[in-house]
Inverse folding.
């Protein structure tokens, strides 16, 4: 059987129900860090894994904002992203008429080669379902959408149908993420990598490459502060002592260097707490390998 996988962008103006729809598509584990300010990096908002496919939903900063507030730069980023994904889903609200922002978004989407599916959301709130057809016609007049489907993200109506339509447009491909991936894993993975890099840089040959870092906890403490707790695993007590250093000096330097880089990358203040633990022979323990993400890049 062919396994399909790929990237999907949900676009649409504010309040049309993108988050609700995403939740309905992927289940509960979504948008843990949803209030992170816009950055140019594309954040993964959720992954839907089934027997037949894996859809990775990503954020597209920029396109959701009204045109006049869009810097050229953000438009470029958004368009580049939309060109790189496999499917774009334009989410619109069935309870209101075509909005000028949507006309703008559709115009921008003309510059994108990716197939676009129209999801007419909130059909449960229509007084008469026949209105849904009129709405769809109004959007179809703006552009010939590759597919369209009326849905109710809130009630879960037709969400599976939408998933089928998306799946049909995904290329053949592998599972990018493990089945139980939670949405912040790619970020925690980046954090682990950066901390590990600083450990190797600062301890030079004293601590071997076998050192590993696992992010244990991530939590948004305010709109611009992210709290991260991570454990650095070594294989021996002697390595642990080197890593901590005299009066904790080495660990402090590792933390400071990593924090600066992460703050620049995420555009957030980072509160980074580091711990060092000895874990003998972790390389032979599947559960730990999973935790460290070694089975992630299949
Ligand atoms: N009746 C109805 N309401 C819905 C549906 N989907 C979403 N809503 C409501 O619409 C409002 C906005 O939903 P969100 O999912 O936050 O919308 P969004 O597009 O993510 O909004 P932004 O984060 O501002 O971009 C919420 O009050 C939802 O409960 C639906 O299918 N039917």
């Amino acid at each position: 059987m062919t396994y399909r996988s790929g990237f999907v962008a949900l676009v649409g103006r504010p309040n049309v129900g993108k988050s609700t729809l995403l939740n309905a598509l992927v289940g509960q584990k979504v948008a843990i860090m949803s209030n992170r300010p816009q950055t140019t990096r594309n954040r993964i908002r959720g992954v839907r894994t089934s027997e037949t496919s894996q859809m990775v939903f990503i954020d597209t900063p920029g396109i959701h904002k009204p045109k006049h507030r869009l810097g050229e730069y953000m438009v470029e980023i958004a368009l580049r992203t939309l060109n790189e994904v496999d499917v774009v889903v334009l989410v619109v609200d069935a309870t209101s008429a075509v909005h000028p922002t949507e006309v703008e978004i559709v115009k921008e989407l003309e510059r994108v080669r990716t197939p676009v599916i129209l999801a007419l959301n909130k059909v449960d709130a229509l007084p008469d379902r026949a209105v849904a057809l009129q709405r769809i016609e109004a959007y179809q007049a703006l552009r010939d959408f590759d597919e369209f489907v009326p849905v109710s993200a809130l009630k879960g109506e037709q969400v599976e149908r939408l998933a089928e339509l998306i799946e049909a447009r995904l290329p053949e491909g592998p599972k990018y993420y493990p089945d139980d991936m939670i949405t912040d894993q790619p970020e925690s993975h980046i954090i682990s990598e950066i901390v590990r890099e600083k450990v190797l840089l600062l301890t030079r040959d004293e601590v071997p490459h076998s050192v590993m870092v696992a992010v244990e906890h991530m939590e948004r403490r305010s709109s611009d502060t992210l709290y991260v707790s991570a454990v650095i695993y070594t294989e021996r007590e002697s390595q642990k002592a080197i890593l901590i250093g005299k009066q904790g000096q080495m660990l402090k330097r590792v933390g400071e260097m990593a924090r600066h880089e992460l703050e620049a990358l995420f555009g957030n203040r980072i509160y980074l707490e580091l711990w060092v633990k000895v874990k003998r022979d972790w390389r032979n323990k599947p559960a730990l390998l999973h935790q460290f993400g070694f089975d992630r890049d299949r």
The chain has two domains: 4-168, 185-291. Residues 185-291 form a domain with the GMP Synthetase; Chain A, domain 3 fold (CATH 3.30.300.20).
